[in-house]
């Protein structure tokens, strides 16, 4: 165990020798800024004033030459080699509602959702709650570095369910889909993430997702359906896929009370040249285009949640900002 001091806030917190500065800070209840937790976004940068740290992931994509020269590191990847003094901005809104903790998860069940998306259900050795839309870090046996995956259930804390898309030649998804068996154990760390359902905001909701972005939107929809605070509100779930076989999610929405009355599902496909797309008689285009077609000028009246690969998240951001949706009404995770 080592100690990390933030002189500007007059705070010192403990960090396990095998933990990272960001995760230990969040475990201690501090509001340290971050997003992806896997070294890609760069939002967790901090400066080392005294002491030494080493990155878990060699040359993480969110770290550049200028950072190196200025003694800046990525909090999610930086493991302290002894006591350290650091400079980092703290923000109230980054404080965790459920403090992230490390535990193990036993795989209870696997279910196919599409040809390349599966749901994995884990029982936690030490239960921990999470807010709908948050993610956990899964350490898959034999795979270097934990990966971030969003939970799809709505948080009893004993189980964490994940809806995961298999990535061609992906290390973690390859192992999860092809090697992991019911009864096997992984490491779990979390919850993390800021793109959680705001139950205190009295606005209708749009959930936008494509591909791997399904999971957190399902979690948010489930929590929305059960939330007394949002009982008078509507939710529109928009899912975009390349071809008809990619379209999914409606089954989960149909199971919710209020489906068809205040909870609605819409989908669209984007690869119109694909031979399978000829049999599709639903909407065509990308999920953000469908949102514009459906809601147009009224988009600023909605609280908008979205998740998916960076190009899709960037397209949704552009669409929302172009339609004057205030940034405070946009909640997203980019799946780096
Ligand atoms: C916040 C967040 C939530 C996500 N939620 C979901 C979800 O709900 N469902 C889903 O299907 N996908 C989700 N993803 C994507 C997921 O984390 C993986 O990127 C994806 O499954 C590919 O992993 P892979 O190992 O199979 O592929 P690979 O191509 O082997 O690995 C690529 C990913 O692993 C990261 N990586 C590579 N090496 C390391 C290392 N040493 N340490 C840490 N990271 C490393 C890369 O940055 C990249 O993100 C999420 C990503 C983020 C950031
Ligand atoms: S790089 Fe650390 S949170 Fe994204």
Kindly report the spatial arrangement of strands forming the biggest sheet: 11-10-13-8-9-12
Distance between the termini: 30 Å
How does CATH name the architecture of the largest domain?
Answer: 3-Layer(aba) Sandwich
Q: What's the CATH topology label of the largest domain? A: Rossmann fold
Instruction: Give me the strand/helix succession.
Output: EEHEEHEEEEEEEEHEEHEHEEHEHE
In CATH, what is the homologous superfamily of the largest domain?
A: Nucleotide-binding domain of ferredoxin-NADP reductase (FNR) module
What's the topology here?
Layout: E1 2-6, E2 11-15, H1 21-27, E3 45-50, E4 53-55, H2 65-69, E5 72-74, E6 78-80, E7 84-87, E8 101-112, E9 117-124, E10 135-139, E11 147-150, E12 159-165, H3 171-178, E13 185-192, E14 204-210, H4 214-226, E15 235-241, H5 250-254, E16 263-269, E17 283-284, H6 287-295, E18 302-308, H7 310-322, E19 330-334
Parallel strand pairs: 1-7, 14-15, 14-18, 15-16, 16-17, 18-19
Antiparallel strand pairs: 1-2, 3-5, 3-7, 4-6, 8-9, 8-13, 9-12, 10-11, 10-13
Helix pairs in contact: 6-7
């Amino acid at each position: 165990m080592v100690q990390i001091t933030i002189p500007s806030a007059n705070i010192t917190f403990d960090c396990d020798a095998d933990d990272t500065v960001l995760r230990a800070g969040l475990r201690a209840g501090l509001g340290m800024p971050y997003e992806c937790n896997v070294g890609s976004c760069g939002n967790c940068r901090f400066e080392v004033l005294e002491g030494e740290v080493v990155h878990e992931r060699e040359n993480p994509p969110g770290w550049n030459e200028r950072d190196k020269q200025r003694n800046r590191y990525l909090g999610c990847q930086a493991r302290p080699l002894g006591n350290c003094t650091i400079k980092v901005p703290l923000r109230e809104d980054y404080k965790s509602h459920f403090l992230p903790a490390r535990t193990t998860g036993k795989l209870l069940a696997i279910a196919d959702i599409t040809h390349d998306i599966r749901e994995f259900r884990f029982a936690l050795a030490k239960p921990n709650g999470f807010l709908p839309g948050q993610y956990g870090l899964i350490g898959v046996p034999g795979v270097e570095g934990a990966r971030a995956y969003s939970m799809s259930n709505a948080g009893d804390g004993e189980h964490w369910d994940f809806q995961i898309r298999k990535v061609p030649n992906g290390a973690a998804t390859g192992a999860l889909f092809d090697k992991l068996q019911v009864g096997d154990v992984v490491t779990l760390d979390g919850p993390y993430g800021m793109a959680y359902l705001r139950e205190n905001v009295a606005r209708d909701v749009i959930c936008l997702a494509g591909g791997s972005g399904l999971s957190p939107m399902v979690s948010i929809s489930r929590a929305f359906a059960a939330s007394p605070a949002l009982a008078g509100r509507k939710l529109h779930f928009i899912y975009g896929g390349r071809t008809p076989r990619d379209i999914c999610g409606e089954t989960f929405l149909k199971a919710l009370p209020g489906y068809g009355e205040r909870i609605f599902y819409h989908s669209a496909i984007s690869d119109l040249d694909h031979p399978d797309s000829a049999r599709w008689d639903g909407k065509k285009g990308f999920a953000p285009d469908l949102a514009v077609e459906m809601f147009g000028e009224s988009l600023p009246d909605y609280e908008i949640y979205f998740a998916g690969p960076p190009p899709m998240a960037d397209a949704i951001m552009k669409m929302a900002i172009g339609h004057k949706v205030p940034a405070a009404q946009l909640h997203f995770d980019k799946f780096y």
